[in-house]
């Protein structure tokens, strides 16, 4: 059976009798290659069982790798697209924030104008009350004398 036709749904059992975990290589020689390996490392008493699932890059022709990258299977390209999407969302949110800050400034200005108008109306009312009280006081004073 060739490595390219391996069915990863069939789980391997190692010499220890455990089901093997599907792992991903993070080494510079085999980045991103998947493999089945014993749950326990050799240092921890494991049997060291190991079997590649993905073919090595030596066995893969360049055109299939290029097709894989072109089709968007390249994780770096996916991450770049995600970063671009997040940057666009950030820019959109910044724009909305600026618009809302401008609206807030306009509303604060209107609020100040309304408060000034209300204060001015209170001053006018107070003047009328004072004039009225003065007139009542003068009338009262002259009625007594």
UniProtKB/TrEMBL annotation:
Pfam family, one: Zn_ribbon_GRF
PROSITE patterns cross-referenced by the UniProt entry: ZF_GRF (PS51999)
Protein origin, superkingdom: Eukaryota
Listed transmembrane segments: 125-142
Record keywords: Coiled coil, Membrane, Metal-binding, Transmembrane, Transmembrane helix, Zinc, Zinc-finger
Coiled coil: 76-117
All copies of domain GRF-type, residue ranges: 14-56
Keyword Lipid biosynthesis part of the UniProt annotation: no
GO molecular function (one): zinc ion binding
Designated name of the protein: GRF-type domain-containing protein
The species this protein was found in: Solanum verrucosum
């Amino acid at each position: 059976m060739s490595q390219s036709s391996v069915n990863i749904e069939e789980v391997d059992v190692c010499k220890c009798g455990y089901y093997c975990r599907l792992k991903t290589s993070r080494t510079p020689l085999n980045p991103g290659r998947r493999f089945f390996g014993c749950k326990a490392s050799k240092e921890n008493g494991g049997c060291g069982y190991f079997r590649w699932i993905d073919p090595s890059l030596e066995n893969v022709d360049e055109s299939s790798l290029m097709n894989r990258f072109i089709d968007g299977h390249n994780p770096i390209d996916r991450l770049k697209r995600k970063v671009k999407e997040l940057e666009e969302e950030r820019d959109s949110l910044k724009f909305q924030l600026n618009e809302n800050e401008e609206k807030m400034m306009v509303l604060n200005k209107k609020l100040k104008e309304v408060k000034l108008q209300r204060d001015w109306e209170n001053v006018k009312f107070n003047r009328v009350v004072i004039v009225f009280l003065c007139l009542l006081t003068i009338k009262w004073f002259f009625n007594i004398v």
